[in-house]
Amino acid sequence: MVPQTFFLLAAAMLGKGETTGDKVSRQAPTGAQAWAAAHSQAAAALARMSQQDKINMVTGVGWDKGPCVGNTAPINSINYPQICLQDGPLGIRFGTGTTAFTPGIQAASTWDVDLIRQRGAYLGAEAKGCGVHILLGPVAGALGKIPHGGRNWEGFGSDPYLAGIAMKETIEGIQSAGVQANAKHYIANEQELNRETMSSNMDDRTQHELYLWPFADAVHANVASVMCSYNKLNGTWACENDKALNQILKKELGFQGYVLSDWNAQHSTALSANSGLDLTMPGSDFNGRNILWGPQLNSAVNAGQVQRSRLDDMCKRILAGWYLLRQNQGYPSINIRANVQGNHKENVRAVARDGIVLLKNDGILPLSKPKKIAVVGSHSVNNPQGINACVDKGCNVGTLGMGWGSGSVNYPYLISPYDALRTRAQADGTQVSLHNNDNTNGVSNAVSGADAVVVVITADSGEGYITVEGHVGDRNNLDPWHNGNQLVQAAAQANKNVIVVVHSVGQITLETILNTNGVRAIVWAGLPGQENGNALVDVLYGLVSPSGKLPYTIGKREADYGTAVIRGDDNFREGLFVDYRHFDNAKIEPRYEFGFGLSYTNFTFSDIKVTSTVKAGPATGPTIPGGPADLWEDVATVTAVITNSGAVEGAEVAQLYIGLPSSAPASPPKQLRGFSKLKLAPGASGTATFNLRRRDLSYWDTRLQNWVVPSGNFVVSVGASSRDIRLTGTITA
Ligand code: BGC
């Protein structure tokens, strides 16, 4: 299907109003009505189901017993098919005709809601084409409070507002294709070490304002399902946590869909059922044993340990997700190996390219018909063993486009930096030399006489069931892998035109590289998926100006982040102060702050205007998906004029940060509450409009157990990063 068709379909399906061109208008979805209709269909179907049918609906068939990573048995009495749940957040795991999309972290670093939404829609289209009913993504936890965290790259960076917007756009995109999305991992699974034994202990306010926040966006976007995580929250397993599942997710956030367990994250029969778990996955442990529902749940229901109404509620929620996405009206049969790529590589290239963050440039970039370039490093070429040689990407060999684990996919093809640079060089008549390993010997020969030396370095991480070079999922440190610093130094010793390209799952410490004379540019190319080299060449040669912005802070040293992988339980002592909230609060100078990124042009900011109707006090609205309805209403608008004052076209991400009035409890000095990406021709101006919802001006009041707008003056800061503030204003409540 072409994108236009499914955008239109989607709009019709969820009843959310007009389409403009090929984009769905972003007016608030009428979620409550769509869910009510789905629930009444579900109730009708439920009446035709036996107790055994119900048990089957909520219990996976067991590990490795079906075509997908998760499967449930068909229920013939209601024509409910065998259901396929498949990873993951960047494509169809184990697919052979599917796209290797950009990881979440790259999508976040574009700050481009249209690209993020299109990525979601294409993910959904591929899932549907493969007959996948429930796609296991997107990821809002890990939020990335620990830079070493193995799975941070699957999600959207360490700011809850940015992650929340990305969750919404991705979920609406996926579900626009008729696929049930899954917001995972709920909640506070911030590291791989001991993820299946540890407890994440945190205070109520931190939970609400940081870790719950993007899940509230997911619920507000009508996500069909939520995956509870492996860890404990405040001493109780996330998948049998009455407070997290029943009280917060279902009651406070008004979640109408179902909770499914992470794979083998269930620990009890009746307790998990009564605490709010609705679907157990995969239905057994990884040895086919430890079956906690199925016959066990049947006995628990018969013994009155689990009420029949609870079992009915589980089924209604699962069925409602199925009806909400109209999967009852015909669905492709399950075939993970279908060829469904369409034109989706265009989104991969665009996200990979527009997510590139230019950190340093003394004028060497963009390149213009250089006479000779040198390409340096084992990570500039494809893995000689094959692009999919390592199971679940459990190695860091060759060019890096994604981390490892269940959130990885097969590449259909992979364009390495060297491939793309060579193609471009041929067109320009440029001579290219290659040093395709990380040995510092021989570098000087390869780089001699080059006008530009592209050194590619990496850092990788992933899920803890695979250990790569001593990293058990989480990274052991924030240094580049494979001699990266020494390789850059060796190149710079021999040639003063070094451009460092970083492919990384997250922050690395850049001090050695920045102290190396001859390093003229640093291009933070992130994790680009299958279009790796093409996206890089687009930026290096100035086909586009770089326009990505960091979705996390890069510190000068590891200790500056104030968080680390913890042995035992994590008490989240840093509270609200993670990433830039911490650097700002502790007055630590970062190397490159959250929201930072250079361009080939310049932007000026002017003419800030603030209008507001906000009134201090608690939220009072009825509960809709996402929480009290009034939390989601716009209460203030800020506009600013952005002008491209340079010589080439470019795009600026204008960012809005809020400082709460002094009547609020101690809070981070600045918190992101709006952004707008404007593409501007040289000399052109555009207006960045930031609509602030009530929630954007609220803090979580632990005594009232509600969101409260504090009285007084809010500082409104608009700028080009979290520390490059160009305009300020005030909102008074
Ligand atoms: C991961 C999930 C994934 C599941 C199924 C688990 O180990 O934490 O993210 O969806 O496996 O593969």
From TrEMBL:
Its EC number is 3.2.1.21. Keywords: Carbohydrate metabolism, Cellulose degradation, Glycoprotein, Glycosidase, Hydrolase, Polysaccharide degradation, Secreted, Signal. Coiled coil: none annotated. Its main location: secreted. Residues 1-17 form the signal peptide. The keyword Protein biosynthesis does not apply. One of its GO terms (molecular function) is beta-glucosidase activity. It is found in: Secreted. Pathway: Glycan metabolism; cellulose degradation. GO terms for biological process: cellulose catabolic process. The keyword Membrane does not apply. Belongs to the glycosyl hydrolase 3 family. This is Beta-glucosidase cel3A. It comes from Apiosordaria backusii.
